[in-house]
Amino acid sequence: MKRLVTVALGILTAIGGFVDIGELVTGTAVGARFEMRLAWATGLSVVTIIVFAEMSGRVAAVSQRPVFDLVRERLGPRFAFANLVASFGITLATVAAEIGGVALAIELATSVNYVLWVPLVALLIWLVIWRVKFELMENVFGLLGLALLVATVAVWQLHPDWSDVAHQVFHPTKPATESAPSYWYYAIAMFGAGVMPYEVFFFSSGAIEDHWTEADLITARANVFIGFPIGSLVTLSLALGAALVLAPRQIEVSSLYQAALPTTQALGTWALVVVIIGFFACTFGAALETTLSCGYSLAQYFGWQWGKAVKPKHDARFHLALIVVILLATCVMLTTIDPVKITEFVIVLSAACLGDDHQRQGGDRDDQQHE
């Protein structure tokens, strides 16, 4: 029974980890412009993140060391430093975008400008990281993130022509109104939104935080092979809802509020409350994960003591790094830069960064096999 509960909660965590501000904005924007012609990019991204997450979790469970630690040891400090600079920069920008996403979700509920909520959101992120246990932190926000499945219910209520949807999915073509560069830009964006580098670092380091062993690999794989596909279902539901409601009206998505419009139209204003809860949970959970991932990568590269379960006095540099990351991300958001714009920038770069990380993980795995 304990293992069953662990699997169920882990699945919810995977859903919350896959659906963040990048998926919310990009999925809706792509649905509004291309309908379901780029669904293949989401399918490719979920397969990719499943492979990366399963591999990183397995390496951590078997070796009892996180992936970034092994990367530095196997490939040397120079290669690892290049990986650190690229992935840390993207993840730090993602922290800023996620903080902005949480603030935007609160703005939807209160009508108070999101910039005013940014300092409070940053403070809450630090308090949760500092005081809330790792497992509780994962599961609470993963469970609340499940509220976004209301978008899937809304799609059924909109009664789409499923034969037309299937044709767009399995016979994708570039719309006549779109250029080839635009089509491929958004294809890369959809792919990048699902395979952010922080997901791999967080999954690997989280395995150490949760004390995974080889006996936990079955549970870990259940989390990955079930949770991430359900997360992709939410993304595709948001895209399809936008294709049915926003695309016919030629509405281009430029704000988080527009991502909620199809669900609200299908189910009524009560659904907006559920969607806002889902938006808040997914973006807040992702903000926690990205902040921790920044700290994990720095600590593992420089050989610091790290971990949420470790008292701050024993890993002061790790916790100081987390505070600095939160402060930097907060300063970025206080410039009033649009979180959606940051998201668009980050997700296009994330695929290239993760591909570079994949080469390093692959080299590390080969070294282990030779030994």
Give your account of this protein's structure:
The chain has 371 residues and is mostly helical. 81% of the residues lie in helices and 0% in strands. It has 15 helices and no strands. It has helices at 2-18, 21-34, 39-63, 67-110, 114-131, 134-145, 150-157, 162-170, 180-194, 197-209, 217-245, 256-267, 269-302, 316-334, 339-370. The protein is globular. It starts with a helix and ends with a helix. Mean pLDDT is 83; it is low at 358-371.
What labels describe this entry?
mainly alpha, 81% helix, globular
The value of Rg in angstroms is 20 Å
Q: Could you give the distance between the termini?
A: 37 Å
Which outline best applies? globular
Largest sheet: none
Brief write-up:
With 371 residues, this protein is mainly alpha-helical. It contains 15 helices and no strands.
Topology:
Blueprint (H helix, E strand, L loop, with lengths): L1 H17 L2 H14 L4 H25 L3 H44 L3 H18 L2 H12 L4 H8 L4 H9 L9 H15 L2 H13 L7 H29 L10 H12 L1 H34 L13 H19 L4 H32 L1
